């Protein structure tokens, strides 16, 4: 059952539309025809509207019924509401159009240098009218934003432990040992983590998802890394390793190693799996679903 306020609003809307039509057309008969009601019905509506407003909105001028100053004042207010409503309806149609609308797209900070821009560049070519809202965040924050509707789709790690998340894998990144180009291990075709157990490491701060994944690799290899420096940003870690402050284990850099560094594949091979994530708690709007389908086909 509708609340009283909703019932009142529903009752007033056609009457206010008639009032606006009178202001635009100048007299009752033309206004009644414009809104599609018989003139006797229009007369009753305006009488009821005057009673609700507590002031006369119409007056008899000869054989015509016209608006009073009060009627014109209320009609002007209705005009503003009508314009806002028209804009809202246009936006609703836009949101329902997969070729327009808006998409909230989140991605890991490590995807911001090339992977996400490349994906977005290709999408803009085929869907130039879709508005994209971009968010960079850590994996856990992206999952939270998916569930609360802040973003529609995320480019992030694929993990079986994420509840109520549907993932479509796009690519995988091998984990490598990042060292200075003149490091003793730089020219190796591959390296086992046990081979660098005595090195000083630089890494991400404890608690960051990628750090936990790297620590899992060390644990599986029976190695307890000695961290000399820890920081929040992946590219800072990569830069510190390139500068010789320590070595690090990271996913391979898209586009190749930084100048002055080498990336040595780790054996046995391990990968970070990256995909498009959506929340199963929320249905995607047409534009977002269109983006998901397009991106899934352009891996």
Describe the protein's architecture and organization.
The protein is an alpha/beta fold. It folds into three domains: 92 residues, Arc Repressor Mutant, subunit A (Orthogonal Bundle), CATH 1.10.10.10; 92 residues, D-Maltodextrin-Binding Protein, domain 2; 100 residues, 3-Layer(aba) Sandwich (D-Maltodextrin-Binding Protein, domain 2), CATH 3.40.190. The chain has nine helices and eleven strands. The strands form three sheets. Strands 3, 4, 5, 6, 9, 10 and 11 form a seven-stranded mixed beta sheet that branches. The protein has a two-stranded antiparallel ribbon with strand order 1-2. A hairpin with a 2-residue loop joins strand 1 and strand 2. It starts with a helix and ends with a helix.
Q: What would the CATH topology of the largest domain be?
A: D-Maltodextrin-Binding Protein, domain 2
Mean pLDDT: 88
Oligomer type? single chain
Shape call: rod-shaped
The total number of structural domains is 3
Indicate the proportion of strand residues: 15-25%
Total helices: the number is 9
Order of helices and strands: HHHEEHEHEHEEEHEHEEEH
Report the count of strand segments: 11
> What CATH architecture of the largest domain would you give?
3-Layer(aba) Sandwich
| Overall helicity | 40-55%
Pick out the low-confidence regions: none
Q: What's the CATH first level of the largest domain?
A: Alpha Beta
How is the biggest beta sheet arranged? Answer: 7 strands, mixed
Terminal CA distance: 49 Å
């Amino acid at each position: 059952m509708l609340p009283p306020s909703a019932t009142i609003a529903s009752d007033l809307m056609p009457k206010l539309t008639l009032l606006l039509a009178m202001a635009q057309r100048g007299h009752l008969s033309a206004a009644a025809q414009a809104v599609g009601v018989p003139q006797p019905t229009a007369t009753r509506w305006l009488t009821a509207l005057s009673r609700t407003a507590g002031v006369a909105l119409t007056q008899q001028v000869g054989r015509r019924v016209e608006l009073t100053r009060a009627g014109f004042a209320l009609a002007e207010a209705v005009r503003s509401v009508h314009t806002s409503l028209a804009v809202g309806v246009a936006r609703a149609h836009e949101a329902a159009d997969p070729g327009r609308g808006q998409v909230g797209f989140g991605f890991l900070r490590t995807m911001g240098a090339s992977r996400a821009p490349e994906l977005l560049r290709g999408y803009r070519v085929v869907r130039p009218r879709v508005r994209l809202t971009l968010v960079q965040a850590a994996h856990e924050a992206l999952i939270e934003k998916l569930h609360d509707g802040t973003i529609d789709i995320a480019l992030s790690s694929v993990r079986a432990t994420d509840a109520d998340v549907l993932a479509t894998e796009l690519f995988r990144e091998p984990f490598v040992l990042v060292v200075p180009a003149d490091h003793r291990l730089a020219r190796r075709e591959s390296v086992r983590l046990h081979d660098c157990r005595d090195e000083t490491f630089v890494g991400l701060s404890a608690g960051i998802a990628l750090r936990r994944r790297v620590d899992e690799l060390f644990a599986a290899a029976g190695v307890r890394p000695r961290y000399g420096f820890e920081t929040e940003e992946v590219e800072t870690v990569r830069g510190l390793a390139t500068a010789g402050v320590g070595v690090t284990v990271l996913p391979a850099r898209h586009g190749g190693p930084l100048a002055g560094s080498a990336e040595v594949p780790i054996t046995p091979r391990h990968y970070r799996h990256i995909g498009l994530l959506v929340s199963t708690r929320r249905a995607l709007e047409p534009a977002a679903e269109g983006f998901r389908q397009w991106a899934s086909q352009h891996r």
